[in-house]
Amino acid sequence: MTSLNHSLHVAVPTAFDHAERLDTKRTIAHILQLQKQGIKSVLVCGSTGEQHSLTLTEKKQLLHALAQETSWAADFEVLFGLAGIVFHETLALAEAISKNPRIDGVVLGFPPYLCLTQKEAVLYAQGLIHTCEKPVILYNNPRRTGFDLSAECLLTLIADSRVIGLKEAGRKERVPQLKTKMAADFRFYAGGEADLAEKVALGFNGLSSMAGNLCPKEIQVIWQGLLKGDATISTSNEWQKMEQAAAGDPTNTISYLPWLKQQITIDGQPFGFCRQPLSLATIDRFGTGSIPPHLAHERQENQTNED
């Protein structure tokens, strides 16, 4: 299995229009802006949590749009998030990814809320790894999923050569010991910029960045500096900009994702909205207690079918 070339990727948000419909054009336009500023790898439909608001059809639309785009640089990598509560739908997504030449790898997350057993998690992951046929970065995020992948199960999963990395958002302290059991080229990805210098010192050698959406040039300088052991990088102007981009709303009135989207512009125009309940504190687009027009239409159709 061919590994991924770039150890830094930016986890990009998903654009939605005023009526909360998926906007593939603006999503890709933002990615192309990042490409122009030197970013060589992005994660689409992963890490922001928005993938869990997308239907399987919408995810396939996004995959299709990525494949149809012709402006990619030859060395640009696109990763796609692969996770879901309904397993047969997640398998269908993995199959669609396997047939998409534009997707270079996947970040495989565990489903939220279900709190899988270790055995269930292994079977879930193995099914998706086998189906997607792409390099896989496992994503362990206990705070979001209620599940913490054990070292034993990780070792079981990495026996498959398609598993080339782990995005560890749980116990960073376990990485040094895990590294002793891994191949030298196995990557441990930091999820976001929190405690980044400490994580690199512990052995993290990959970064899944959110701040890079706002400071793409700076995050590249910082990442290369950390990998080279530059002790001065944490006092640089680039570091200060990264911290501001990673911190979110300085007034603490809205959550990170709506704030992030407010900062992104495409040709001078806003990037797009979040799906509710995100951003309810800042804008009520449909009126208190109402739902988006496209969902209201679906509800009406469902009620008609039931009748």
TrEMBL record:
Coiled coil: none
PROSITE patterns in the record: DHDPS_2
Family matches, as Pfam families: DHDPS (PF00701)
Key words, A-Z: Lyase
GO biological process: small molecule metabolic process
InterPro entries listed in its UniProt record: DapA-like (IPR002220), Schiff_base-form_aldolases_AS (IPR020625)
Superkingdom as given in the UniProt entry: Bacteria
Recorded GO MF terms: lyase activity
Record family assignment: Belongs to the DapA family.
Name of the protein in its database record: Dihydrodipicolinate synthase family protein
